[in-house]
Design brief:
Helix content is 19%, strand content 41%. By secondary structure, it is α+β, with helices and mostly antiparallel strands. Strands 2-9-8-4-6 form a 5-stranded mixed beta sheet, with no helix packed on it. A 5-stranded mixed beta sheet has the order 11-17-16-13-14, with no helix packed on it. It has a 5-stranded antiparallel beta sheet with strand order 25-24-23-20-26, with no helix packed on it. α4 runs antiparallel to α5. The chain is elongated, with a radius of gyration of 37 Å.
Amino acid sequence: MVKLTNNKMIKTLKTLLTLSFFFLFATPALAGFGISPADVYNTHLKPGDNFEKEITLSRSDIDEDLKVVIETDLKEAESWFQFEPGKEFIFPTGQSRLVLKIKVNVPNNAELKTYQGIIRIKASSVDTQNSGVSIVKGARMEVNLVTTSLDVSTLVVKGMSISEVHDSDPIKLLMNIENKGNTKTAPTKVTLEIQDLTQKTIETQEDSSLEKIDPNISKEITAEFKNNLKGGEYFGLVKIYLDDKLIHSDRLVFKVINAIETNGQVSKVSLVSKFINLIKTNKVETVALLLTPLIPIVIGLLVYKFGALLFLKKFFLVGTIAYGILAITIFSFYHFKWKPANMAKPGDIGSVQGESIEAPSPTLPPKNIDNSSLKVDRDNTNGYPIYRTPNLNSTVVYVATENEKLQVIDEKEGWYQVSTNNGTGGWLQKTSVKSSQ
């Protein structure tokens, strides 16, 4: 057995005490620390441009404050960079993520070339005075910037949606788009293919009057489309183009509301709202409406100015006012009552843009007609359409398939009024009938 001298025993005790002190009071090493994304990259900056990059700092241990220090080695581009909240800041206790903003401002006299550099982000415990030991964690970011005189247009669609809309308002498509180019630009056009819930196309519209987006920012812009739809849910197949190149496509679901049911009562959209929407979506007809009364108005003014008879002046004045009211009334009735509906979902019955027809009930007994059950024969790939009214210009409410049997409700010259198995009612041309049984 080895015996220790007094001096050796004292040294051994000091060593043990030092180790005990360290284990009792030393700050533990930082747990995981990281950044995302790990680079600052832009290859089409113009002199005078500026852009912003958001970097997310993250850590797994949230039990203490961290002091974050940013060190840069950016050479000629050193003065271009700004950091928020600064090059030194505190990552507070209880917070697992923190956003660091890096702003880059390219001077107007910058040379056209590639600029490279490094950004180091270091984090250490604030409370290190008791332990005498400082544990530093960090991450490194690569910087690669290219200045150019060329115009670059690059758009990235980050999200889009169509909100619920009343039948009196235009359909609005909201798009969140980031301009990653170096020129102020907008999508060339946006198309909206409106489909029913069976994905059958109702109509396709286009909007090319879109707000431009400044370089290196994200912005929400809006595309507007005419709303000729009745209440219900629809698909909207959206395609966004830049210089005739498709950059994004998606299928959205949206709802059109034309009446709100409350406690058994129906509150319809006001006539004023519908009329305002008509002016917005029917500009040509609105201009015609405004110009047409000018003829009698001009005549009335001439008569009023140069006419000798007072009763004639009053007659033309009252007639002009009445004519204007009549023109507005005809315009409104044309759209709300007389204009044929041009779209509906297969299977829908009822009113479309004011057109109304009583739907035959599938439970009603058929009239005394010999061919009470019909069998259709499809001689083309589109099937045989069943119309809302016995008119080829009417809305198609259903498409019969080959050998499908239909119940006869009524008939008139050239047409059968029929009911399908799912209860849809409408009119079928007699030329579509293969046989009756």
